Amino acid sequence: MSTSGTESGTRSRTRRAILAAAAATLARDRKATLADIAEAAQVGRSTLHRYFADRNELMAAAIVDSFGAVEDSVRAAAIDQGPALEAMRRLIAAMVESGDRLAFLFGDPHVLEEFTDRFEPDMSVPTTLDLIKRGQEEGVFDPAASPEWIQRVIWALTYTGWEAAEKGELPRHGITATVIRTFESGVVVT
Is the pTM of this model over 0.85? Predict the structure, then answer.
C-alpha cells in the first residue's frame, strides 16, 4: 500500500490549516508573528517554514487562499438563483461564515496593496453587484441607492457583526440574523 496519497492528503490538510490560521490570526492581530500563526494552526514553527519560507510568502498564499475561500462561499450560496432577497440572505450567511477571511483581506487596506497582482478572481462566480442590480430590478432593493453603495453596506454590516462577536458583544450564532435584519431594515423596499 502506497503512503504517497496519505502524505499528500496530510500535506494538503496541514497547508490549509496553516492558511486558515494565518487569516484568522492576522484578522485579529496584524502584528502576529509566525510563531503565533504556527500555534494557531497547531503546528511547529519548523513545520510552518517547510510550507512557507517567510512571512511574505505566507501572506501572499493566505491572501490567494482567502479570496478562494470567499469565492467558494459565494458560489455555494447560489446567489444567481431564486428571488433576490432570498439570494441576498444566503450571501450574507456565506459572508458571515467567511468572516475571518473577509476581516483578514479587508480589515487593513495595506494587506492587499502589495499582493493584489498574485490573485486573479474567478470570473465564473456571480457577483454581489449583479445580485443587487437584479434585486433593484425586482423592486426589492432600494433603487435610489447605487449598487456599489449597497455592496459597501453589506460588507460593513458583515465586518461589524464579525467585530462585535470578536468583542463578545454579539454571540457568533446571532451574527447572520442580526446582519440580515439590519440590512433589510435599511435597504429592502417594503
Answer: no
**Beta carbons within 8 Å of 79's beta carbon, 6+ residues apart:** 87, 88, 90, 91, 126, 128, 130, 131
Note whether 38 and 45 are within 8 A (CB). yes
33: left (phi over 0), alpha (psi -120 to 50) or beta: beta
Q: Does position 76 have pLDDT exceeding 80, yes or no?
A: yes
For 127, which DSSP code?
A: P
The C-alpha atoms of residue 131 and residue 85 are separated, in whole angstroms, by: 9
Residue 1 neighbours by CB distance under 10 Å: 4
Q: How far is CA 75 from CA 68, 161, 170, in A?
A: 10, 22, 27
- For the chain, domains (ranges, CATH) are 4-186 (1.10.357.10)
